[in-house]
């Protein structure tokens, strides 16, 4: 069965990140911020999978929630 690890998460209002968390280093914080500026303002949910990583965005009433998960097979 597979396992997911949280790599990065943030909560934003509009395009301003209010809080974020990671225990890792990498350019994913910059990429996530760039994607935040491209999200539609309407309430919506997005999931992208790439190279074993799952990118989740939820836009709800002006707030954006994001997490980046790493999926590993054990």
TrEMBL record:
Signal peptide: none
Localization, UniProt: Endomembrane system
InterPro entries: Longin-like_dom_sf, Longin_dom, Synaptobrevin-like_transport
PROSITE patterns with a match to the protein in the record: LONGIN (PS50859)
Topological relation to the membrane, as annotated: Single-pass type IV membrane protein
Gene3D superfamilies listed in its UniProt record: Longin domain
Entry similarity comment: Belongs to the synaptobrevin family.
Assigned keywords, A-Z: Membrane
Every Longin domain range: 10-65
Organism: Corchorus olitorius
This protein's record includes keyword Ligase: no
Coiled-coil zones: none
CC terms in the record's Gene Ontology section: endomembrane system
The protein's name: Longin domain-containing protein
CDD domains: Longin (cd14824)
